[in-house]
Write a structure and sequence with these properties.
CATH architecture of the largest domain in chain B: 3-Layer(aba) Sandwich
Strand order of the largest sheet of chain A: 1-2
Shape of chain B: globular
Low-confidence stretches of chain B: 1-6, 8-34
CATH class of the largest domain in chain B: Alpha Beta
CATH topology of the largest domain in chain B: Rossmann fold
Largest interface: A-B, 43 and 40 residues
Mean pLDDT of chain A: 90
Helix content of chain A: over 70%
Order of helices and strands of chain A: HHHHEEHHHHHHH
CATH topology of chain A: ABC transporter involved in vitamin B12 uptake, BtuC
Structural class of chain B: alpha/beta
Largest sheet of chain B: 7 strands, mixed
Mean pLDDT of chain B: 90
Helix content of chain B: 40-55%
Radius of gyration of chain B: 22 Å
Strand order of the largest sheet of chain B: 9-8-10-11-12-16-17
Oligomer: heterodimer
Distance between the termini of chain B: 46 Å
Strand content of chain B: 15-25%
Number of helices of chain A: 11
Strand content of chain A: under 5%
CATH superfamily of the largest domain in chain B: Response regulator
Chain lengths: 288, 431
């Protein structure tokens, strides 16, 4: 019993990080139609910039979490405005190539700026350490992470469904030309959505700093793969699908590691294959 | 002499005779010292060394520290007159962790760049992927980090690929050496969290086999293997805490060890499991990365630790290294540095850079190095040298934990012996 509780908690918290990355990825794909392979890099940049604020400006973690992602938004703006915008009309492979080039560029930039070695943030005493749960110590911060995921999901849903901006975004994502004809400034909208997606990824990276306790130049590469799997399972472009997918992957891999250690990675790919066979468009995806 | 690179160099020498002689005579405006070797026509310079280590991805820091060590050796050797009077040139390439990249680098170094010697390699998978190409290219390759014992036991000893040598200590220290440490601890039930690939499996297996022989009655109650790139160890930590072992053995390394230790500390693992062994925990990236977060009283070791041995050679080297790079040397810095010196010693001993002659010179060769006295075992080309184990403790002189209660498990005690078959070839040995 004690074990199952902790396996669930571990699964939920790792699922929330995947969700934060997958939400930005999904939003960008849903609206811009671009599969942004570099999204993991924004997660990495979020972590590094948050760490920098934390270490060099002597600021506290929450300030780092506020300022770091803003810097990443600026980077995202440059990427969209000057590069991605030129490939929207090209076939998907070109977009993938360009975003993959950014993965390499960002990985190397991080090495140049922050060094090739891993960085380890000092232990932060957030929320006063840990609480006992089922007879074991559990950091309050991890509970906070588990709470942040649904909050972001609800916030996104309210934003998209209940606000004027959300309506425009939905309109532009379902019919770009029509929205444009009706006076929506689509390029500005695309830039804003891309920057917002980057912000989500960067917040995920910033939150990961105290959680994993380590920053490495390739740290975005692992999570982007997981985020892609989540997006495929949930249905590309569906936020509901990404949230459900992230929960499933997080909890399933935690259970896999604990109870079926030989197959833990296999389980996830089996699930992905099964979903693709049963619903090729993903759990919540629409047939395009 | 049929090699493309050599032909080109000879061609250059013949056509631009005066120019190239001037170039060889003075480098960077300095007159190059010409000692007795200048008269030896058997060795033509420069001596070219192709070095590869991981410079990208999450382990990129390792490559950087290989580079520091190797570059420093090249600088010092060139300043002191080169190898056999000839200047040393090194090219450094990113090996990544992929086997095909390592093979491609070897080809490039020899076929396109004209390397005389090869060195480097971090991953065991890569180390097992390159022997065939090394044999075909026919160059001496000195492995400086990859630890799988299968490289020297199977590829070199059994299959006879004599071009390969290893200067760093292999899994014998991690597995068998760890068992010698565990034998003296009051722990009977052991568990592991280790990497989910060749290195992690082979060390855990060796640890169990040797500890069973050293201390009958021990049991190994649970294991959890984490794939390469794991950042969240919480599920693995749950597995261990559910099993409640007395001892934990882990060959997690680099950044993954840092994440693991931090998360285990949060979960209270070190309060519950009192006896912990990290065979590669004495790596500078781990010690500096964890700082005060490294718990006390954990047994750690590595391929070299800058505080051992307390010899003149080592202490002076550490001081020079710190002056040059403003860092403490990582263990790969020492093995990289010593690999260049091993090439120098072998070429000068052989009086030639011909592969066969250098292999003959390296076999059984003894050398003094920062890590202490090394000897390349003739049969499997594995360098034998002793490394320290110690229990982590704080020291006001350093901003990170160091080894207290140092003890040495010698290579003689814990390295498996040729022919690597039968119970008498693995520790414990009678003599």
């Amino acid at each position: 019993m004690q074990s199952i509780v902790h396996v669930c908690l571990a699964g939920l918290s790792s699922g929330m990080f995947i969700w934060l990355v997958a939400s930005g990825l999904t939003l960008i794909f849903g609206v811009l139609g671009v599969l942004n392979f570099a999204h993991g890099s924004f997660y990495m940049l979020g972590a590094y910039s948050c760490f920098t604020v934390l270490r060099y400006l002597g600021a506290n973690f929450w300030l780092g979490l506020l300022l770091g992602p803003l810097f990443v938004c600026a980077v995202g703006f440059v990427v969209e405005r000057f590069f991605l915008r030129r490939v929207y009309h090209l076939a998907l492979p070109y977009q993938l190539l360009l975003t993959f080039a950014f993965v390499l560029i960002f990985d190397n930039l991080v090495k140049i700026v922050w060094g090739a070695g891993s960085l380890s943030p000092p232990t932060l005493d957030l929320f006063g350490g840990s609480v006992p749960i089922a007879g074991r110590k559990f950091p309050v911060y991890n509970l906070f992470i588990i709470g942040v995921g649904p909050l972001v999901a609800i916030g996104l849903w309210l934003f998209l469904e209940r606000t004027w901006w959300g309506r425009i975004i939905r309109a532009a994502s379902s019919d770009r030309e029509m929205a444009s004809a009706l006076g929506v400034r689509v390029p500005v909208l695309f830039t804003s959505v891309f920057v917002f997606g980057c912000w989500l990824g960067a917040v995920g990276g910033g939150l990961a700093v105290p959680y994993t306790g380590l920053l490495t130049p390739g740290m975005g590469d692992t999570i982007i793969i997981e985020a892609f799997i989540v997006a495929v399972i949930g249905g590309l472009g569906s936020l509901k699908g990404a949230f459900t997918g992230a929960l499933i992957i997080g909890v399933l891999s935690a259970f896999g590691t604990r109870y079926f250690p030989t197959f833990d990675m296999f389980l996830i790919f089996i699930l992905m294959a099964a979903v693709l066979l049963w619903r090729p468009q993903g759990l919540f995806g629409e047939v395009r | 002499m049929g090699k493309k690179g050599i032909n080109r160099r000879e061609f250059l020498k013949l056509t631009g005779a005066t120019g190239s002689m001037l170039a060889a005579g003075s480098i960077g405006g300095m007159t190059f010292p010409r000692n007795v070797w200048a008269a030896t026509p058997a060795i033509k310079g420069p001596i070219k060394i192709g070095y590869q280590a991981i410079l990208s991805g999450t382990l990129a820091g390792y490559g950087q520290f290989h580079k520091y060590g190797a570059e420093m050796a090249v600088e010092e050797i060139n300043k002191a007159g080169g190898i056999a009077g000839q200047r040393v040139e090194m090219e450094f390439r990113d090996s990544t962790t992929k086997g095909d990249v390592a093979i491609e680098n070897c080809r490039y170094f020899v076929d396109s760049w004209g390397a005389d010697f090869l060195a480097g390699i971090d991953s065991s998978g890569q180390a097992l992927a390159i022997p065939a190409i090394i044999q075909r290219l026919d160059r001496v390759m000195i492995i400086t980090h990859a630890a799988t014992e299968k490289l020297t036991e199977d590829r070199v000893f059994k299959e006879g690929i004599k071009q390969i040598f290893r200067i760093s200590n292999p899994t014998y220290n991690d597995g068998n050496g760890g068992a010698f440490v565990a034998k003296d601890l009051p722990a009977m039930k052991w568990a592991t969290i280790s990497p989910k690939y060749e290195y992690g499996y082979t060390c855990w297996k060796m640890f169990q086999e040797t500890l069973r022989k050293l201390k009958p009655g021990v049991s190994f109650i649970t294991e959890s293997f984490a794939p390469f790139g794991t950042t969240d160890f919480r599920s693995h930590i749950n597995t261990i805490m559910d099993a409640s072992p007395d001892g934990l053995y882990s060959t997690e390394w680099a950044g993954e060890l840092i994440s693991f230790v931090k998360q285990a500390k949060e979960a209270g693992l070190f309060d519950k499991v009192k006896h912990v062994i990290f065979p590669v925990g004495a790596a500078m990236d781990v010690l500096e990365g964890l700082g005060k977060d490294m718990p006390d009283n954990i047994w750690i070791s590595g391929r070299y630790f800058f505080r051992y041995p307390d010899s003149k050679t080592n202490n002076e080297w550490v001081a020079r290294f710190r002056k040059r790079w403003n860092h403490y040397p990582a263990y790969v810095s020492e093995t990289a540095y010593s690999s260049i010196h091993a090439i120098k010693a072998a070429v000068e001993k052989a009086g030639s850079k011909d592969t066969m002659a250098v292999i003959a010179a390296l076999e059984g060769m003894e050398m003094d190095s920062p890590a202490g006295h090394r000897v390349f075992r003739k049969e499997d080309h594995q360098a034998l040298y002793d490394v320290a184990w110690g229990k982590t403790k704080a020291d006001p002189k350093y901003p990170f934990k160091v080894m207290g209660e140092m003890r040495v498990i010698t290579a003689k005690e814990c390295f498996a012996r040729p022919p690597f078959e039968g119970p008498e070839t693995s520790p414990p040995f009678k003599s």
